[in-house]
Amino acid sequence: MATDEFYASRSLDGVRVVTFRQSHILDSVTIDRISTRLKELVAGAAEDRFLFDFEHVAYLSSSALGMLIGLQRRIVQRKARMKLSGINPEVMEVFRITKLDTVFDIYKDETAAVEAFRKNA
Asked: Hey, what CATH topology would domain 2-119 get?
């Protein structure tokens, strides 16, 4: 398991699971640092399935949503797949308002997302 101040990353059944550790992903400096690290993680990962778990995240800024869109683009370019999980109701409302709930494949929790990857392997 790889861990830094922003997230923990591990492989689970061939899925690279990234669990965010910060409850607020709001300021542009933090988002830029997370984005850089996640781009490196995606580029160097052996897996072609990525799960980003937001279980510990209470607030996301619009810049953080933009970062996720850019990350999804990189993952698709790699011919890989991406899912999100553990998004709390308040943050999920932002996904709904921005219609990003139709862009991202979102699951209640890590277990459901990993199971969905298994079914679509």
From this structure: Transcription Regulator spoIIAA (3.30.750)
